[in-house]
Design a protein that fits this description.
By secondary structure, the protein is an alpha/beta fold. The protein has a single domain (2-178), classed as P-loop containing nucleotide triphosphate hydrolases (Rossmann fold, 3-Layer(aba) Sandwich). The protein is 48% helix and 14% strand. The protein has seven helices and five strands. It has helices spanning 13-26, 41-52, 56-74, 86-91, 117-123, 133-147, 166-180; strands spanning 2-6, 31-35, 79-83, 109-114, 155-159. The protein has a five-stranded parallel beta sheet, sandwiched between helices. The termini are close together. The mean pLDDT is 81.
């Protein structure tokens, strides 16, 4: 089962991925965590493009290659939690023309974390892509559009503005995983 955690920088994706993984491990479920960009040569190139702030047009292509590179690890039967995936590449890049989704394993479940932009902005690591709060607001709007284009049983919308209790959110995500794969 493949679960992607998506949301703007500072929304709490990494924290939730770790909390859900911990909860599943306490229930003897084997879990893998993959954060994009990865530590592969493509992921390292993507990080250097982000940090340098130049060649942003190439960022989407490099991230796509990173996704392709990771596909064998995503094809098994194990539970994989993804800290960012396809949506982030769409949101943080201007064009989606390069993507051929047929080559990528799509998530069984996307957990979208909707956080107040001002709160997320105050928590996020500032780099070339996140330094402008107005851009973060635009990105959140794009994420929200993506949530409307996915089947409801493949989406878990977490409204951090309403439910900011970490344990409650973690248990909600765990329940949704069990709903889709009772063996977990």
């Amino acid at each position: 089962m493949l679960i992607a955690f998506e949301g703007i920088d500072g929304a709490g994706k990494t924290t939730l991925v770790r909390q859900v993984a911990y909860l599943l491990c306490t229930k003897n479920v084997q879990v893998s965590i993959i954060a994009f960009p990865t530590k592969s040569r493509f992921g390292q190139l993507a990080r250097s493009i982000i940090n340098a702030g130049d060649n942003l047009d190439n960022l989407q292509k490099v991230c796509y290659l990173d996704f392709l590179h990771m596909q064998p690890k995503l094809m098994g039967d194990q539970l994989v939690l993804l800290d960012r995936y396809i949506w982030s590449n769409i949101v943080y890049n201007s064009s989606t023309d390069f993507f051929d989704y047929d080559e990528l394993k799509l998530p069984d479940l996307t957990v979208y974390i909707d956080e107040d932009v001002d709160i997320a902005f105050s928590r996020s690591k500032i780099d070339r892509l996140t330094a402008d709060i107005s851009k973060q607001k635009e990105r959140q709007s794009t994420y929200e559009l993506l949530t409307k284009q996915i089947e409801s049983d493949k989406l878990l919308f977490i409204d951090r503005k309403q439910a900011n209790k970490g344990e409650l959110i973690t248990n909600t995500i765990h329940s949704k995983i069990l709903e889709q794969r009772p063996s977990y």
